[in-house]
Amino acid sequence: MNRLDRTNHFQVLILGGGTAGITVAAQLQRKRPKVQIGIVEPSTKHYYQPLWTLSGAGVFPKEQSERDESAFIPRDATWVRESVQDILPGENAIFTREGTRITYDFLIVALGIQIDWDLIPGLRQGLGSQQICSNYSYQHVDYTWECIRGFSGGNALFTMPNTAVKCGGAPQKIMYLADDAMRKRGVRAKANIIYATAQPFLFAIEKYRTTLEQVVARKKIDVRLRHNLRAIDPEKKTVELDRIDIGDTVTLPFDLLHVTPPMSSPDVIKASPLANASGWVEVDPFTLQSPKFPNVFGVGDCSGLPTSKTGAAIRKQAPVVVANLISALESKPLEAKYDGYTSCPIVTGYGRLVLAEFDYEGTPRETFPIDQSKERLSMYLLKAYALPKLFWHGMLRGLA
User: Fold this and answer.
1) Whether the domain at 6-113+265-338 and the domain at 117-263 fall into the same CATH topology
2) Shortest CA distance to 18 belongs to which of 260, 287, 300?
3) Identified catalytic residue from 133, 147, 167, 302
4) Of 92, 191, 256, 335, which one's alpha carbon is 20 to 30 angstroms from that of 127?
5) Residue 95 in contact with residue 40, Cβ under 8 Å?
6) Average model confidence (pLDDT) for the chain?
7) What is the pLDDT of residues 22-33, one digit of tens each?
């Protein structure tokens, strides 16, 4: 392939047309309509992934989470429907897999997070069959509900890996909903629900952890801290779990297995000069500017920020990136600051939700004048009905 067949240049080039990339592009175009924006994104579909938890629990059809990507590309932006192959910040250029060389004045890296299905032997082969399911795949989220509604007893195992994931509370949500569904069908007494998490705690922030500890106690869920999924045998329907504190491995049988797969920074970032030691885009935690390349900013899940990777975090990061990018375009100091705000709406059952909101310091940053660590119907309705509308009609339009 001749990688120099075609060349394009943009004032601002955005890598990734997911939530972070589109939100930044929409806000930037509203504030500076004349800025030339290019968006590199191969996918023709856009997904509201937080809805997949409820889809996997039979609440909404998964199709409700899907829209055409073309509907959200800002009107005057150029959509490059290709995949990023190489990032060369020293040359202010990138190459696509299709052979296009694109140069830029400023670069926004918003490539999201990579799901590493193949790091768990047996996962890819078994997913979508043998009662092995995962809400982290649009293709297979329907199978989660099929497994839950067809469950008649035995071990129901839910896992959380030893890596960063999209929304740290998501691995628990489907477990709590499955517990509710089993109770409604009268099979909960025949079930042994196990939560195997590589983390040393149920949730990082104490205020919300206290509530969740009460939830698992009430639901009689067997929590196995510092247990990391190592391998799956789909035929024997067993898993191997590394017991991190002890340093050995335990084998467990399962009758239902929901896997939260390990995740990492996209390989193209790991291989680039933008990566930190862990492979994420290295940025200043407050300005979101690269310390090595001042004309590069990172936003969203691919950024090496010490906070949970959520859409709510993106909603607060995007205006900071846009404000600082405009300052950089105008050769002014970067004054906008991101404080690490993120949010995890943790569904604890049908009609119940704990709305965790916090910053870099782990300090609760709650939106409403109530104790959000309590399980509430109102917060469940917020997640199920209000937040999707805010996403489609607010964030992706640059209005929220």
Assistant:
1) yes
2) 300
3) 167
4) 191
5) no
6) 96
7) 999 999 999 999
> pLDDT exceeding 70 applies to what percent of the chain?
98
Domain ranges in the chain?
6-113+265-338, 117-263
CATH of domain 117-263: 3.50.50.60
Q: Which of 133, 147, 302, 344 is catalytic?
A: 344
The pTM of the full predicted model, rounded to 2 decimals, is 0.95
Q: Are 197 and 169 within 8 A, CB to CB?
A: no
Measured distance between the N- and C-terminal CA atoms of the chain, rounded to whole angstroms = 42
344 is catalytic: yes
CA distances from 398 to 137, 296, 319 (A): 27, 21, 9
φ and ψ at residue 255, rounded to 5 degrees: -115, -15
Q: Is 302 among the residues known to form the active site?
A: no
pLDDT at 1: 26
**How many residues are present in the chain?**
400
How far apart CA 384 and CA 172 sit, in angstroms, is 17
Domain 6-113+265-338, CATH: 3.50.50.60
